[in-house]
Design a protein that fits this description.
The complex is a heterodimer of chains A (about 110) and B (about 230). Chain A is mainly alpha-helical. Chain A has one domain: Orthogonal Bundle (Helix Hairpins). Chain A is built from three helices and no strands. Chain A starts with 9 loop residues before the first helix and ends in a 13-residue tail after the last helix. With about 230 residues, chain B is mostly helical. Chain B has a domain of about 40 residues. Helices cover about 55% and strands about 0% of the residues of chain B. In chain B, helix 3 runs antiparallel to helix 4 and helix 4 packs antiparallel against helix 5. The radius of gyration of chain B is 23 Å and the shape is globular. The termini of chain B are far apart. The N terminus of chain B is likely disordered. Classes of the chains: A mainly alpha (about 110), B mainly alpha (about 230). At the A-B interface, helix 1, helix 2 and helix 3 of A face helix 3, helix 4, helix 5, helix 6 and helix 7 of B.
């Protein structure tokens, strides 16, 4: 019997991405800089993407009889959407900075009653 | 890696109660080489040597040591983002995390994704973030610090979430034994291209439209208004 640490399986990848998603959530919660929050969102997205590729790797596509491709496709779309989201979010942050001269999200309370 | 067992030793007080003894499953104790049923009575598997860690793993590209190097890089830099107060350092730590993720893609035989990750994420999204930092940093001495209470609370939520997810994860059966080696003549990029133009044609075209809309929208929103 080999040591389980030598036998990298799906669980190992899932444990890493769990740590990653927790770090992302903690980043989103603790940062006051709007760009810091964006970085936290990128961490969460990356954790989900690694999860999808790991499941894709360890699951054989039963229907087509070939290697699975769905997780890889999903991750490619995640990368596209993350780039689009970062562009729009940074445009919003720039607009906000032009109006408030700050990127502190706690100051964005103009709409609160 | 899967461990068969009949009855885990903590099943009576397991917070996640669905334990199906007939299924093979992973346990946290098994992950560190102990018997999940009788961790104290059974001898653990011998501790792996460095030579073993550097031997290629049949279930992935490369040796287990590579996986652990990438895992350390990814997790440490991700948590460094949480505890860093300097936004420029945070972006550098994000770069390290993204490179670790690219390493995982390589080990998971998704070479195309690893390249895309480095080109689009590390080369595009991260540059965008660095530009955002530069454009919104008129007075560099101003630092947005979270109060120690906020930081502690956020870290607590993060660690609690990680603990909960890991607890659920090690109780969930995973298809660890289902791995089958990819045939030697398999070309993943060809499969991705075929998939993009057949099953995923509509998402592909939608992504193209989305990128156009995002480009126009971001340029419109970020422009400097007169007066």
């Amino acid at each position: 019997m080999t040591h389980p640490a030598l036998d990298i399986g799906l669980t190992h990848y899932l444990l890493v991405t769990t740590t990653l998603v927790a770090a992302g959530i903690a980043t989103i919660l603790t940062k006051r800089n709007a760009i810091g929050i964006l970085i936290g969102v990128e961490l969460v997205l990356n954790a989900a993407a690694i999860n999808l590729v790991a499941y894709n790797h360890f699951a054989w596509s039963a229907g087509k009889g070939g290697p699975a491709i769905e997780g890889v496709m999903f991750t490619a779309f995640i990368i596209v959407l993350a780039a689009a989201e970062a562009a729009v979010a940074l445009a919003i942050v720039l607009n906000y900075y032009n109006n408030f001269s700050s990127v502190d999200v706690d100051q964005a309370d103009s709409l609160s009653g | 890696m899967a461990i068969s067992c009949t009855q885990p030793w903590w099943s009576a007080r397991s917070p996640i109660g669905f334990l199906d003894p007939s299924r093979e499953r992973h346990y946290s104790l098994a992950l560190i080489g102990l018997d999940p049923i009788h961790p104290l009575q059974h001898k653990a598997a011998p501790v792996p040597t460095l030579a073993q860690l550097m031997t290629a793993d049949p279930a992935q590209q490369g040796a287990p040591l590579l996986f652990y190097a990438c895992a350390t890089l990814t997790c440490l830099s991700a948590w460094a983002i949480v505890f860093s107060q300097n936004i420029v350092r945070m972006s550098v730590y994000l770069l390290l995390t993204l490179m670790g993720a690219a390493g995982f893609y390589l080990m998971l035989q998704a070479e195309f994704l690893a390249a895309v990750q480095l080109i689009v994420y590390a080369g595009g999204t991260l540059i965008l973030i660095v530009f955002g930092i530069m454009l919104t940093n008129k007075n560099p001495e101003m630092q947005l610090r979270a109060t120690p209470m906020e930081l502690g609370l956020g870290a607590l939520v993060g660690v609690g979430l990680a603990a909960l997810l890991i607890l659920a994860l090690v109780h969930t059966p995973t298809p660890g034994q289902g791995f089958t080696a990819v045939p030697a003549d398999y070309q993943q990029v060809r499969a991705i291209g075929r998939s993009l133009l057949s099953e995923n044609l509509v998402p592909f075209e939608l992504a193209a439209v989305l990128l156009l809309v995002v480009m126009v929208g971001a340029a419109y929103m970020a422009r400097r208004r007169a007066g």
